[in-house]
Design brief:
This protein is an alpha/beta fold and 243 residues long. The chain has two domains: 199 residues, Metal-dependent hydrolases (TIM Barrel), CATH 3.20.20; 34 residues, no CATH class. It has ten helices and nine strands. A nine-stranded mixed sheet has the order 7-6-5-4-3-2-1-8-9, with helices on both faces. The chain is globular, with a radius of gyration of 18 Å. It binds zinc ion. Zinc ion binds next to loops.
Length: 243
Amino acid sequence: MSITIADFHVHTLFSGDSHLSPRVCVSLLANHGYNAIALVDHDSPKGAVFAKKHLPKRILQKITVIAGQEVKTEKGELIILGCEKTLQGNFEEIVEFCKEENYLCILPHPLDFFRKNSACRKGFVHYAMKHVDAVECTNARSFMFFNLLAKSLAKKLKKPCIAGSDAHMLNELERVKNVLFCENKEEEIFEAIRKGKVKVFVKPYFSTLQRTKSLLWKLLFKRHEKGKGIKSVNTTVDATRVK
Ligand SMILES: [Zn+2]
């Protein structure tokens, strides 16, 4: 049986908040044993479209680039895989359109209460989970506790789980591996996900530590900007570190 190793949640420069060029992330994963990568920029499929068009053939022969996007809706964010056009609309319209076109609809980080665009923060987590093809039960940027909650709810609702690194920076790549028991073709990958034939591997302790660190930095900066911060924090040094 063929095995495909994939990451279904990577952001590129086209997201506006990522440091990764499409060429770097696709080449790096291709050279580290991955067979498929979904580039899912915020509200845009441009990263994946760019990669498919401009990357050298020798790289694209090693790895399947799946076009995707992470779309904001009123009921939380959705990851759509397979679509090369920018999607807009409300939750129901997008889900319905994906069904018609056979695109894959994934609910990312559904129970991460720290993200304002997650389904739980919008109050629609059960509803949203019921209407998607699969759930991102493991997001490498989320705390393990939130991932465990997502996994438990997905199991209850009988939804297949996948993992996403949600990488925005170089050191966030390769944090997850989805091992699929299928051929390395887009339609077969989608079918394997829908049938739940995916094994997920993640570096949980590392991601939890990183997340704690970034939340602490955010907290420190916010306090400092408001004039309540710790006096010894030097803004010049900190600003450089953030960049
Ligand atoms: Zn994301």
